[in-house]
Amino acid sequence: MKEEKSIKSLVLRVLFIVAIVIVVVILAFAIIKVIPYALSSFASMGNMFSSSSKNEIKISASNANLLDGERFLLSWNHRTDKIGEYKLTYKCIENFKISAVTENGIQTILCNTRYSLPNNKNNIELEVQLDKINSFSDVSLEILFIETQTQNIEAKGNLTITVRNDSNIPIGENAATNITTEPITENQVNNQNQATSNQQSSQISPAPQIRLADLAISNPVILNNRTIQFSISNIGGTSVGNWFFTYSIPGQRVEMSPVQPPLLPGQGIRYTLNFDSSVRGVSVINVDPLNTIPEITKSNNILSVNIAGGSTINNPPISNISKADLEISNLEVGRMSGSRFIESNSITRNQEAAVRFIVKNIGNRDSGSWRFEILNSPYQDEEEYRSSRQNSLRPGESKEIIVRFNRPEIGRYNIEVEIDSDDDVDEINENNNFDSITLRVTN
User: Fold this and answer.
1) Alpha-carbon gap, residue 299 to 435, rounded angstroms
2) Long-range contacts of 249-253 (CB under 8 A, 24+ apart)
3) Distance (Å, rounded) from C-alpha 355 to C-alpha 372?
4) What is the mean pLDDT of residues 396-423?
5) Please, what is the average pLDDT of the chain?
6) How much is the pLDDT for 190?
């Protein structure tokens, strides 16, 4: 009996050892098969996160809500093991530009170009300039990382800033006037366009053969001495994105509407303008005042409403303003290099000084011929420059003008430019005909 128990005990021990060996073998086999895949997965995840980080540039601004002439610090953060260069770019916006503040002075950064950022740091001081009064712009800044060897864009990042010309300009909020809106159906748009064409001398009608939008003001009504109504409709052949309009409070100031929603062809909005108090005089409504929307015509974008004021509601008839309106913008000084203008506020006396600016007819009639004058010019012989007669500008047409001064004297000049200096043009607004800038001429 003792021998049988001894044999059974030995067999059990052997079986136990064999079982342990089998378990160990199975575990070893599993480890050999599974661990490499696990490590590979972790590596793939690591590469994914690393790749995502390398393809994205994080951009920040010390201030993203700026006024004309203000400066801010633009910073970027990006990790890469490649050799390359960071570039800054932004799209062209009318009357807007960005300049870099460097040790050598202010340097203009041209729109739709790639400006090289410093490699020894990850920030740059910038200055914004918005020349159009009573306006604002949302500007998208983009930084690219371009690899030196392949010239491929390896990473990029975006940031949007808002620039206003006046701190009193509302963005996304109604100003001192209450504006209420009501959508208009396509049939109402057509009916109102027909009624307006009968009331006014110029007919408003779509041009389906041209695939452009066309925002038009129609059906104005004066309800009382503080309330007017009008419609703005897209009578063109394609839709428009976000837009806005301006309106003047008689005897006070010009206000800007909040950003308006996109309009498809045939869509419109009925507006009710409620002034805070009784007004007397002319209120001018201007649709797309910055001319950012390509349209069939701009002649139906401006409406003048004569509000008599007082207690009566029997006001004079409403009519569109039909005048030209010359506007000066983008005034710059610098020097000439052959036929190329180089902007700079400081030049030497042996360089050819130059003044550059743009004149645009933002009214709805041809301007006819006109002149301009430049006062405090750096001419040796005379301080005043008077131009020859300039050709007429059609509504929406613009002209770039460059005036050279080939013998500038040493000094500091507050150069003043006035367009339509002889008052030849009957204009909607005479207050946008003048601008000034400083030029320094050194030895």
Assistant:
1) 26
2) 249/176, 249/177, 249/275, 249/279, 249/283, 250/279, 250/280, 250/281, 250/282, 250/283, 250/307, 250/309, 251/279, 251/280, 251/281, 252/279
3) 13
4) 88
5) 78
6) 53
Element at 183 (helix H, strand E): strand 178-184
Using the predicted structure, report yes or no on whether residue 14 has a pLDDT greater than 80. Answer: no
Residue 113 identity: T
The answer to whether the CB of 53 falls within 8 A of the CB of 79 is yes
SS3 415: strand
The amino acid present at 102, given as its one-letter code, is T
Distances 423 to 49, 419, 430, 435, 438 between C-alpha atoms, Å: 66, 9, 9, 16, 25
- Do 286 and 246 touch, CB atoms closer than 8 A? yes
Question: What six digits make up the tokens of 37?
Answer: 């895949």
Distance CA 137, CA 135 (A): 7
Whole-number Å distance between alpha carbons of 75 and 62 = 8
Q: Tell me what the mean pLDDT of segment 144-149 comes to.
A: 88
User: What is the distance in angstroms between the CA of the first residue and the CA of the last residue of the chain?
Assistant: 125
Q: Six-digit token pair at 165?
A: 């010309």
Tell me the per-residue pLDDT of 45-77, one tens digit each, with 9 for 90 and over. 444 444 445 678 999 999 888 888 899 999 999
Distance of CA 225 to the CA centre of its chain: 36
| H runs (alpha helix) in 173-306 | 186-199
Residue type at 127? E
Contact 387, 370 (CB under 8 A): no
Q: Would you say 394 and 301 are in contact if contact means Cβ atoms under 8 Å apart?
A: no
Each residue's pLDDT tens digit, 234-268: 888 888 988 989 998 887 788 888 889 899 888 88
305 band by pLDDT with thresholds 50, 70 and 90: confident
Residue 319 vs residue 234, higher pLDDT: 234
Q: Measuring CA to CA, which residue among 62, 64, 126 is closest to residue 97?
A: 126
Which tokens is 367 given? 């301007």
DSSP-assigned beta bridge partners for residue 145: 86, 155
**φ, ψ at 264 (rounded to 5°):** -80, 165
